[in-house]
Structures are given as structure tokens and as C-alpha cells.
Amino acid sequence: MSEPNQEPQQPLVSLGFLDSGLLDLGLPEDLLDTVCQQVAAVSSLAELNAVRIKVSGKRSELLKARQALGSLEPEARRQAGKALNAVKAAVEELLATREAELAAAARAEKLVAERLDLTEVTEPLQHGYLHVITQTWQELEDVFVGMGYRVAEGPEIESDWYNFGVLNFPEGHPARDMYDTLYVDYGESGSTLLRTHTSPVQARVMENQEPPIYVVAPGRCFRQDTADATHMPVFHQIEGLVVDRHISLGNLAGTIQAFTVAYFGTSFTSRLRPSYFPFTEPSAEFDIQRPDGTWLELGGCGMVHPNVLTACGIDPEKWQGFAFGFGIDRLALIRFGINDLRELWTNDVRFLEQF
Fold this sequence. Notes:
The chain has 355 residues and is of the alpha+beta class.
């Protein structure tokens, strides 16, 4: 709003040219100066309206002067009327000018008060990090790629043939039981399922690639396990496959030991223990020995069963191979010293940002 104590505007009309007849109407000589000062002193439209009523309302001096015109002689009335109209016009112009100023000031003040701050305020950029499992997954891939393997992938929804049949699982094997495997309602009953391991990827590679074959197959797997500190119904696995000439169990043991040193360091070592798997013969479990001397089971391995090679179109008389597999999630627990597998799935930022 405009300041009330500003210099008064110069009157637009002076009474100096008026004859004494106008003065006889009762108007003071300094009328315009007085109005000008009053108009300049107001600071709001309400105050200006009060001044308007005072100088041109029903009880104003201008209205009284107009009423007094009838008492003058014709010639004096003509001169006085002309002067009165000029004064009235000057007063109205003073009021209109000041009203425009106050309205503009009020509008500007309202715009400032109601102004919306459209400045875009962005939070500081927060850099994300790879999940613990993803970190482990990528590191394992790097280790095996450095050893000459390539990475192979396959579908998570598989047929019973690729998940069991081609891998020498006999009919009635416990792994085929619905209490262990999650079957999908697609096709014939029991024909489609969520893969229980990434071994089907190995079978697909052997069907579509001539030996020699050196691949690893990381991926997500599914089993009807109850969630606890070491098991989850959804887990991650990485399996390796080698098919070449003159491959022996010694090559497998050397590969496992080379992986152990590359991933865990020279303070770790590995060993093989006899075991059984339908798709390998002979089969073994492999463990790693930690610096404190304790052993930890890591996964299973063995020489690829001749029936599996035959089912995939590879002559077992010419080619031999070995396979191995272990859980990515378990390796993540070992690497980062995590005690409970479920912590990896709670998505608690306070836990995950430590890694």
C-alpha cells in the first residue's frame, strides 16, 4: 500500500480565475489544496471512499454550492456554474488518480501474499547400491569368466522333462513330489513347474552347442521350503558344466580348488566327499575349510552321467564332463558374515546399506 505521508499532488484547477460570485456560494479558496492533501494522506481504498463522501457526498460543500446557484443572478450563475463544474471535475480526477494508485498497490500486495513458489526443490541425489545377492552373483560370474567359462541363462518356468527327465531323475523320485516342487497350472498336470535348480540350463546348452562346453548358469530357483535362517522358498544358484575330451574327476577337483582360492582367498581350501546325485556319476559334496579349521558344505558336484549326455545328444564314448553347483545366497552369507538368510529379503535399508 502507498505511504500516507507523501507529497500532495498539485491541484489540477486553481480558484484564482474564479470571480467573487463563486466565493459567494460558500466554497473556500483553498478547497482543491485541502482535497489534494486529504487524498494524498489516505492509505487504503476505504479511507479514500471516506474522503470522497466528505468532498462530494450529500453533505459536502460542493453539493451545497450547487444548491446555492439558484440564488444568484443569471450572469453570476453562469460564471459560478462554470467554475463549480471545473472544481468538481478536478476533485473527481484527484480521487480517480489516487484510487488507481491504491488499487494497483493492493493488487501488488495480494500477488506477493498469494504468490506460489514454483521453484523446483530436489532432494540431494542418493546413490543406490547393488543388493548383497546381486553383488555376489556378479562377482561369481567374474570369477568363472576369468577361468574361461561363459554365462548361460534359461527360463524359470520349465517343463518336467528339462527339470527332471533329461537329468536322469527316475519316475517316483522324491524331488518330483508336489511337496517339494512348485507346479504350474499349465498343460497336462505335472508337466510344467518352477525350476528347482539351474541344471535345465545345462541341458539346453548341451542340446544346442557342440562340445567343448564351458559354461556357468546362475539364476533363481524355487522349492517348497519353509523359510528359516538357512532356507528360503526362493533362492539363487549357480551351476557349472564342462564337456570336453579326456575330462576326469581330477579336473573337477582342480577346478573347485581354483574357484575356492579365487573367491575366498588363499587361506581357504576345499575337499570332496562321496555323495549321490541322479545326474552325475561318481558324485560328491564339496566343502571349504575356513581359516579357523572348520569345514563348511558348499555344494554338490560330480562327473556328468552318461545317460544325461545321451539324452542331450552327446556321445559319452567321445566326450566326458563334470558339473557342480552351489547356492549364491549361502556364499553371500559367508562373504558378508550374515547369520540369517531371511535378512536378505526383509528389504530393511538399515541392514542393506551396510554392504
